[in-house]
């Protein structure tokens, strides 16, 4: 099979006028692993918050030790309603994480929620 791949690669290279190249075929094994808790939850949070313009969320990420969800917004910390928005976003996420499906993923693992302003200040 290795020779077949090498021959085919050479044919494609020559057909695209890439002549004079040596083709080396190597085997790469990719280990597929299950998503971790953070990624399983973060993409759902991102979909929900970014799709609702009133939250002004620009990015959702996470880190471990402890599991921390980081919500970036387009609001400046000087905005009079910034803190109120930060608290509202945090409450929305907490309500979401209390759903049975999310509780099953978290398995009582402690977590934090950081809502961040455009100028990198904590809003909650």
Description:
- It is a single chain.
- With 124 residues, the protein is of the alpha+beta class.
- It is 42% helix and 16% strand.
- It contains 4 helices and 3 strands.
- It has helices at 2-15, 37-51, 82-97, 100-106, and strands spanning 57-63, 67-73, 111-116.
- The protein has a 3-stranded mixed β-sheet with strand order 1-2-3, with helices on one face.
- The longest helix is centred in the C-terminal third of the chain and has 16 residues, at 82-97.
- The mean pLDDT is 90.
Summary, kept brief:
With 124 residues, the chain is an alpha+beta fold.
Give the N-to-C terminal Cα separation. 58 Å
How much of the sequence is in beta strands?
A: 15-25%
Cross-sheet strand order for the largest sheet: 1-2-3
Largest beta-sheet details: 3 strands, mixed
Globular, elongated, flat, extended or rod-shaped: what is the shape? elongated
Average residue pLDDT: 90
Tell me the number of helical segments per DSSP (H or I, 4 or more residues long): 4
Number of strands: 3
| Poorly predicted ranges | none
Using only C-alpha atoms, the radius of gyration works out to: 23 Å
